[in-house]
Design goal:
It is globular, with a radius of gyration of 20 Å. It is built from two helices and 16 strands. The N terminus is likely disordered. The chain is mainly beta. The strands form two sheets. The protein has an eight-stranded antiparallel β-sheet, with no helix packed on it. The protein has a single domain, classed as Jelly Rolls, CATH 2.60.120.
Length: 209
Amino acid sequence: MSNTMPASVRHMPAVTSIKTSKLVLGAIVTVLLLSGCNRRVFQLQSEDYTLLDGRILSNPDSVSLPALNRVVVSWPARIAIRNPQITDGELNTVMRFVRGNNATVRLRSTPYDDSTGSNPNPITIDIDGSLTTLRYRDKSETRTTNTVAQPFAIKYASLGRWTDIEVGCTQFPRFRNHTPSTQWILVAPGMGSSVEITNLNIVGVEPEE
């Protein structure tokens, strides 16, 4: 009788070791992303390796951080993200609905300080399936966007008084705004929805008059 073990048996310890290593690595990443013992404060690594500030504005159990550049937010959670060095700038990120298909992104919505409290007249992006509505003051614009069943990009350029926004490959008309620039970007999934945010980048630009 041969004493040679089947290949499947010989490789079992290695497979188990790999799976264990992945679990340990995931736990380490989560610990690194959370700042100290405060479960409502975290950091994300942007595409250019800058560390972005993050805050959980609700129950932290509905927010997960599976990687250095990725956060998953599930209803009814809300989060705020910023680059503390930049006020006027460009935001580029990729979002994907893990569950459901609606979420709200608010820009220029916080005071011009460290607070994540609300300012009047924010710029609001409401995503509802394949329709996205951009709201500012008493004006709104609704367009069809590629935001269902696939990752989609959100691009936001805060250029001083001018704002450019693109959602799911759809460009909204440039508009002039009168709300002070702020750093925090607020994200809130709609009822029953869960959204993944990744590949986030926030860079400074020269404001336009």
